[in-house]
Amino acid sequence: MLEIKDLHAVVAENQTEILKGINLSVNAGEVHAIMGPNGSGKSTLANVLAGQPDYEVTGGVISFKEDDLLSLPPDERALKGIFLAFQYPMELPGVRSWQFIKAALDAKRRYIDEKKLSAQEFDKMFKETVASMDMSQDLMRRSVNEGFSGGEKKRSEMIQMLMLNPALAVLDETDSGLDIDALKTVAQGVNRHRNEKNAVILVTHYQRLLNYIKPDYVHVLINGKIARSGGPELAKELESKGYDWIKDGAGENNHGKSK
Amino acid sequence: MSNKETSLTSKYARYLNQHSEFSDWLSTVDNSLDNSLRSNAMNEFRESGFPTALRGNEAWKFTNVNPIANHDFDFDFKQNHTGLSSKMISEVSPYSDEWNTITLVNGIYNKALSRTHDTGIVIKTLGSKNTNCSLGTHADVKANGFVAINTAFINDGAEILVSKDYEAAAPINIVHISTGESAPRVTYPRILIILESNSSASIIESYVSINSDSQFTNAVTEISVGEGSQLNHYRYLQESPSGFHIGSTVVDQNADSSFNTVSYSKGSKVGRNDLLVRLNQAGARCDIRGLYFTEGDHHIDNHINVDHAAPNTYSNQYFKGILTDNSRAVFSGKTLIRKIAQKSEAYQSDKNLLLSEGARINTKPSLEIYADDIQAAHGATAGAIPDDQIMYMLARGLDMETATSFLIKGFANEIIDSITLDEFKTYLMNYFDTSLPKFRFKGFGRGKVFGGPVERV
User: Fold this and answer.
1) B406 to chain A: nearest residue by CA?
2) Is any Cβ of chain A less than 8 angstroms from the Cβ of B415?
3) Nearest alpha-carbon partner for A226 in A1, A20, A10
């Protein structure tokens, strides 16, 4: 589904190189966890996938469902099935969640030649999804994320993900700043989304999210490259040993191929 | 005669001639309004002229009225307009058959297009007998030449009286229509609204035009809100984009009354919404909100003054502007808290969305405080569409045009949402849905980076 080859990216503003040759392939049905210390480039990778213009790709290729992803603007990437759950979800004053998600779903269904849902059909699905994420219906009638707590914002991201049902969900540190209940709810959302057709990339600094979402692969990103890849046991190892021991071995096992 | 007077007299000779013709005509018709109100006002105008000097003229610093002063407008006081229908009015302004409607065509009360359903509302034309003697006591002819000349040319506007203890069931819709004529014309709509004690009403004042070009509307509305009364007031300005509009509203509030107003101003060539609210007695509250949208070379100036002249009074000014192309807007909010006005609260805020590099806002909220036990805050912002918000929406699959329009409407919604009259709220929302231009970031799709100014699609 997703094939990243020798990806290099810089911060657009000052041309500082962050990603220094990433290789990764993700297949349908897989959950990949990308871990690594602060500043290793995890979030940059997530943002580059979504087409965030703060980063400029200077080398490499990303293909997504056989398309050259890098040639597509952010909205078309989303329509093709990439969903970025933001680390810091934006507040959209005056834009109601209901209306925003309806417009996004309408756009997606139009893109894949499906008839748009009627207001009633949408409303039913929306209410159910909101309830499944233990989120207040009233809050989701108001402006997108406005005045939401950190946990509510992350739940709102998961609601959007479940409503849009993307082929590839990229969660950028969705677990940061969450208490254990919110973390469990978010994990529930991801597990509900997970199926043989969808893939998930979890970007996380901590192992604790992986207690609730069992990844198929764990990759450790150090200094803009995948320094080590493995199964779920790698996350446990990181928890007990930290990242330093991998730094030492960086470059020895950096092919990052999951298959 | 001083030099100043001579030059004013020659500059405004057209107005003086029009006024003497008007006075001659008045003496031939049954118009019972005390003529001294008009003649005093004309004398005042002769003294002051229009506020054309930009230097040392703080209230008009950013709004150049020379294009108005230098324009030769016709004045037709005898006109008797037919050919307009309710349907035509409903196409250009908020309208409902269920509402009480008062229509002024080119400043003249039009009986055929006016009707009242509510028994506790008394409507009189200003030219008729027995009108309330308080006409002209709220809006001071010394305020500026525009108020003076409007007063000098009072012909047949309307007086609306909401009786004591009466709660108006249906809104009162005052429609000011300018109609198309071959020559540019000036009109002087004049309204007096009186809410007697413990009454309540919703009033919409619309200023619109039909087939009209560069007309000049010089309007004055006087409002008195009696003790314990509540007025929800809406002002809708959408006249010809090449026209001029100077509107002055003066509100006097008694004890424990509340005045809530929301205005929507679409830019004119030169547009000005002048509002003065005097909180004369304890417990009076006003909430003043406005939304303005300018494009092309429009200019809109919201000039708001609040005078806290009694203890325990409250005022809130909240304005938002959407500016594009080379348009310009001015917000001047001035709140005076007198020494006597202890325990009062005053807030001011003006926020602007600048959609192009050529658009410009001059915003100046200011508080003048003489009491020591009060609460007050003010602020102003101006900025472009935040690119991180756009990115967030693109990441959900919305295209650039839809995303920007969502954000612009979202920005406007905060003001529109404060409208309690549902029909008017829906009207404005629909209007924004259908008539807002589409925008995208400049260079989007060509370069890798977006943000900054947007361009029309």
Assistant:
1) A95
2) no
3) A20
